[in-house]
Every structure is written in C-alpha cells, then in structure tokens.
Recover the amino acids of this structure.
C-alpha cells in the first residue's frame, strides 16, 4: 500500500517558510521538540483514562497499567479481595491464604515513529512527519514525567534507530535527537529508496518489548502485509498497543479535476483526477489502508488514534483522549 501521493510535487504542501528558512510545519529540529515539554503536561497516558478517551474501553481502561510483583503469601483477613485467594495453598493447608501483590514502580513505554518519505506530505498545515514527531515528543515527555521508563524506535526508508526504555533524561534526549535527525533527511530532492517495510520495524518492537510495555506506533502505515498483521497481533497480546494513524485530508479525499505531477525523484508522471477510474483507484488505496487499521482495532482490541496533519497536534491529541481541546 505505497503512499504515492507522498511524492506529489504540486505546490499542495504548506506555504513557503518564513524568513530564516526554517518552517516547523515542514520539518522539526531538536529545539522545536524540546520546546514541547511544558505542553506535554496536558496529556495523560495512565491507565485511568477519561470516559471519552479512545484509550478507554466501555467498562475499563484499554491501558492495563503497570504490572504486579508478588510480595507475600499470608492468611486471609476479613475484607481481603476473594480474587486474591491462592486456592492451591488454601487446599493444602486447610486455611484460606491470599497472595499479596504490589504494583511495579514503572511501566516501560516504547514510542515507534515513522519518518519515511511517505510521511513527507502535507496539504493544509503540517507534513505528516511533523505531526508524528510532535505527537511522539509530547508522549515521551509525559510518560517520563509520570515516572515511567521511555524509549523509542525511529525509522526512515533506509535507517532505523533504537533507544531502549529508561527512566532517564539522557535517554529521552537521545530519542528526540534521533527523531530530529531522521526528520532532517526528508526533503524533496532526497535520494530514491525503497520504503522500509513496517514488518521489519515491528520485529524490532517485538524484540525490545516482549511483554508489559506501552507501545505507541505513529505512522501512516505504508507498506503493510500479512507479516505486519501477525506482528501487530502478537505485540498486542503481550502489551498495551496504541496505533496512531497519521493522515492528510488531501490523501484521504483526493479532489476531482486536478492534474498532478507525481515524481519519485527520478521518474515523473502526470495523474488526471478528472479521470474517474484514476480517481477511484487513488481513493480506494486510501480507504483500503484505513479499513485495514480499523480491522486490526476490531480483531485485536487495539485503540486507534487518528491524527490529522491538517490540525495542530496537541489539541487533537487532547480531544481524542477525552481531555478537551484547551
């Protein structure tokens, strides 16, 4: 499911950068990502989610929270939760016993961020790569502030960077640096490369986060296959998996009657969206990708955060998490 629209060079990207040459709607740098720290405090990734949050199930949070450590085995006392009774020990001793568990001090989080060329597209406000980078930085700051370990995987078309979860500002800064570096490689005249399959990235996720992690994947989910689906299912079984589907309205609802020049950096072609057959094929490609992700949501029980590059990142994250836009 290649996102060919990402290589359209038709002037539909955000307006020309301001004086100074740097436009945070087109690219991000380390200073821009670090500046998001204060704003990140307006989010929460704790298990207790607001009722309207997409991370909240109908009866309980979809985020299972920190794991539990066995503390001791002792006799049952009035008021103890009967679900904590250890029935094997109770049967062996003839007296009711309960297992006392304590919550782990933290829960590691792994934030996976797509910075491939398919993300280098935007028609209204941001490039998709910028929206993904900002969402990743906001999540990383908030998770570390909550006392949890945070790490990440940043990947482009040809390179992948892994930062294992740590409760450390140094590790967080390494993650932001890798994110800024990967984003800096995205440009219109970048060398042509085959996009990195998402399955390769998810194999790294499964290795680093085998169980009891919060895993957030921010991507447009370009280049997925049956292996991708198997890996998503496996990661979701052992972890709290959140899929951040980053899209752009131009790619999702392609206007009719446009003549687009499409290029991969070497070859060039013209697409006439006034041609109904061509328009239908492009529209089906976008809707097919959305259908795939929503099918994963239904089958594997993973929440989906639909993030649009046409809106500011923090307000829509707050809205999706039931916190209001302010």
């Amino acid at each position: 499911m290649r996102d060919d629209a990402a290589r359209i060079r038709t002037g539909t990207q955000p307006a020309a950068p301001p004086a100074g040459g740097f436009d945070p709607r087109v690219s991000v740098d380390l200073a821009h990502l670090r500046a998001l720290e204060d704003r990140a405090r307006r989010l929460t990734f704790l298990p207790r989610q607001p009722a309207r949050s997409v991370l909240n199930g109908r009866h309980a949070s979809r985020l299972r929270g920190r794991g539990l450590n066995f503390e001791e085995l002792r006799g049952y006392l009035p008021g103890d939760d009967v679900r904590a009774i250890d029935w094997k020990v109770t049967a062996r001793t003839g007296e009711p016993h309960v297992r006392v568990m304590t919550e782990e001090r933290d829960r590691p989080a792994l934030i996976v961020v797509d910075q491939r060329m398919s993300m280098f597209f935007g028609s209204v406000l941001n490039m998709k790569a910028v929206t993904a980078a900002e969402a990743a930085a906001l999540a990383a700051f908030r998770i570390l502030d909550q006392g949890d370990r945070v790490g990440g995987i940043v990947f482009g078309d040809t390179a992948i960077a892994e930062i294992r979860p740590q409760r450390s500002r140094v590790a967080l800064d390494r993650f932001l640096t890798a994110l800024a570096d990967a984003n800096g490689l995205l440009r219109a005249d970048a060398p042509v490369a085959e996009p990195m399959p998402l399955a390769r990235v998810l194999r790294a996720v499964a290795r680093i986060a085998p169980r009891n992690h919060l895993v957030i994947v921010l991507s447009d989910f370009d280049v997925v296959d049956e292996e991708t689906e198997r890996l998503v299912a496996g990661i979701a079984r052992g972890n709290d998996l959140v899929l951040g589907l980053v899209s752009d309205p131009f790619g999702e609802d392609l206007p009719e009657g446009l003549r687009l020049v499409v290029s991969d950096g070497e070859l060039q072609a013209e697409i006439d969206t006034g041609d109904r057959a061509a328009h239908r094929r492009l529209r089906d490609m976008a809707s097919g990708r959305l259908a795939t992700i929503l099918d994963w949501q239904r089958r594997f029980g993973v929440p989906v955060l639909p993030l649009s590059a046409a809106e500011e990142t923090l307000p829509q994250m707050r809205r999706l998490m039931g916190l209001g836009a302010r």
Q: What stands out?
A: The chain has a mean pLDDT of 81.
